[in-house]
Structure formats: C-alpha cells, structure tokens
Amino acid sequence: MADLITTTVGSGVPPGCHLETKSEQFPDGCGFPAPGVDIFQFEPIVSFHLFGIDFNIGKPILIVFICSVLMLLFFFFAFAKPKLVPTKIQSLGELAYTFIRDQISRETIGKAGDKFIPFLFTLFFFVFFMNVMGIIPFAQFPPSALFVYPVMLAMMVWVTYMYIGMKKQGPVKFFTNMMFPPGVPKGVLGILAPIEFLSNILVRPFTLAVRLMANMFAGHLLLTVFIVASVYLMSFTAVGIIGSTASFVMTVIMTAFEFMIEALQAYIFTLLTASYIAGSLVNEH
Amino acid sequence: MTQLLASAEGGGEFEVLAVPLSELIMGSIAFLIVFGVLGWLLLPKIKKVLEEREEAIEGGLKRADEALAEAAQMREDYKEQIAKAREEASAIRNQAQAEKAAIIEEARAAAQEEAAKVTANAQAQIEAEKSKAVSELHKSVGAMATDLAGRIVGESLSDDAKAGAVVDRFISDLEQSNAKVGSE
Q1: Which residue segment(s) compose the domain that B97 sits in?
Q2: Prediction pTM value
Q3: Which of B13, B37, B42 is the mutation pick for testing A, counting most A CBs within 10 A?
C-alpha cells in the first residue's frame, strides 16, 4: 500500500504526460506539465573524443554555428563589395555599423574607441543572433540561455579589457589604479581595495554572463509555459477555448516582448563591455 | 518521498550554471572565426566606404559653399563695376557738358575778339585813310589856295603861318558851306 502511494505520488507526472510526447496529447489525469529546467537539456547528436576532451554536438552548439554562418553570410553580402551609394542590404549593414559606432562605442569610449568597434560589433551581433534564435521557428532555443555561451563571451570581454588595461596603464599600475582610486581616505582603502579588486576582476565578468543567461533563461521558460499551456488547455469546452486562446495570445505578446528583451540584452552586454574598455583606457578609476 | 527527490534529481541532472568545456571551446572558435572575418575583412571595408562617403558629402558641401561664395563675390564685383561704369559715364557726361560750355564760351569770346579786332582794324584804317586824305587835302588845297590866292592877291603868301591860318579858315568856311548845303 505504501508502495502504491509512493508510485502515484512519487512519479509526479503519470507516464504519457511528458512534453516529449506531445503527439499523444495529454491524457486525462495528467496535471499541467509545467516546463522545467529539462527544456534546457539536449541530447548530443554527435559525440567524439579529441585531445582528451569529450566533444558533444547538440542542438545549442548547432544553433551557435548556424548563427555564426548567418552572421558571416549577412555581413558578407552587406560589406564585401561596399559601394559609395549603398545597396539595400549594405545600408542595413551600415545602419548596424553606425549604431555600434555612434550609440555604443563613441558614446561610452569616445573617438579612441574606434579601434574596438569590430570587437563590439561582433559581440553585439553574436549575442543578438543567439538571443533571437529563441523566437525563430525551428531553432526556438536561445543558446545564450545556457551559461556556457555567456561565459564564453564574458571571457573574451575579460581578456580584452584586462589586456587593454595592462597595456595602456602598465601591468602594475593597472591594478593599483583599480584598487586605490584617488581621493579616498586611507582608512577606507583597507575595505575598498579588496572590494574594487573583486568587483573588477571577478564580479564584472560573472554578472555580465549571468545577466544575459538569466534573462534568456527566464524568457525561454516563460514562452514555453505559455506555449505548453495553450496546447494543454486546448479542448472544446468553455475553459479550453478561453484558456487556450488566452495562452496563445499571451504567447504572441510574449514573443514580441522577448524580441525586445533579446535586443536589449545584446545592447546592454555590448554597452557594458564598452564601458569596461573605457575604464581600462583611462588612468583614473 | 525519496523517490520523488530521486526522480526530480534524475530528471534534473542539468545544472543551470554548468560550463561544459567542449561547448566552451567550440563556441569560442565560432566567435573567433566570426570576429576574425568581420574584424579583418568586412568591417574595415565598410569603415573605409563610410569615411569616403562622409568626405564626399563634406567635400561636396564645401565645394557648394565655395561656389556660392564665388558667385556672391562675382555679383558683388559686377555690381561694383556697374556702379563704377555708371559713375564714370556720368563723370564723362558732366565733363563733356562742361567742355561743351567752355568750347562755346571760348568760341564766342574768340569770335567777339575777332570781331572787335576787325572793327578796330577797320576803324583804324578808316581813321588813317581819313587823316591821310585830310592831310593830303590840307597840303594840296593849301598849296592850291595859296597859289591861287597869291595869284589873285598878288602877294606871295610865303609866310607859312599866315598861309596855314588862311587855309584853315578857308577849309572851315568850306565845311560850313558844305554843312549849309547839306542842311538845305
């Protein structure tokens, strides 16, 4: 008897109620199969072993590759043979370029930031393409919701601003300038210096990565909830029609909202990177 | 209950903050390839074109400004020249007027002078002729008269003074009689 209870309670969702079995619909007796972290988990399609590392190629990394190819294709057609009087695709690309240059680079770094435009540009569109994949049909998953990709980008940013800082200010001066900002009383420095060190060296890349990942994670989860709900509630009853329709409308609204968040997060990621680079370029903190 | 936890764990091997090395490496390679192609191949091209266009637009504006300034300068010059020409023309006209008046005045003065001179010459000539005639008359009439008178009177009027007085009286008588004849 005890065993029976545990099986009914313990299995939580009865068999046949998992999201993977959408085709069977949800049989009677199934609770709402709220999507969980398992929607961020993908079985590798190809696995191989190289240099002592197991390489697993699953859906997310494939989406990243597709993003890269799409970016290269788009900007190749936009910029490969630039004309003084631009074609349509070129003017779209130019719009992107001038946006990064004027709204991000020159706004935060100034004219000195012009040589970092390629990095900021790549960063922005890499994040943007990955994010937007969350609402592109068939892909429908933002790789940036997996911590590894934001971490990868944050690492690039970290290496960049650390390198620039040490090159511009000197390897020792960079750290002393960072930890001992001018005009701070000596007593406070004892607390401030470790905090500054931690915030610049560790917290910055971590928050940069987590911010992007958490936003995409939450957005994807939210969208999935509404999509699952509109399927789950679908039936020819009053509750079914109203609930399913409302969920579907919410899905559409949330998709539009997600697009905004995706663009915004790409912008924030790039803007913060630009401000870190700007901080490394100037001597004062 | 343990089974519930176990199933939850079983379903959720997934760690939210997991960073699998293989995806980190592959993602980095993808990023670096995109960055390389964009940064070294494509973006410098568009940067150059944007700069060229900016320059072209700025150059065009500058050239237009220059042309405008030149046109304004030309117009100013033309205005100045026209004003100058007008001034010159009026000056010339005034001068011509003045010259004309002067010439007329001069010509008139010269004519008058000439006329005066001619008149004076004529007068002088007449005067000379007259005085010559008178003196000749004096001489010849006096001689004739004295001769005649001497013949009639029989006495020689050798005394010149006397003879002169007689002649004079004779001539004045003659003139008187002439006047009488003229008045009659």
Answers
A1: 29-183
A2: 0.66
A3: B42
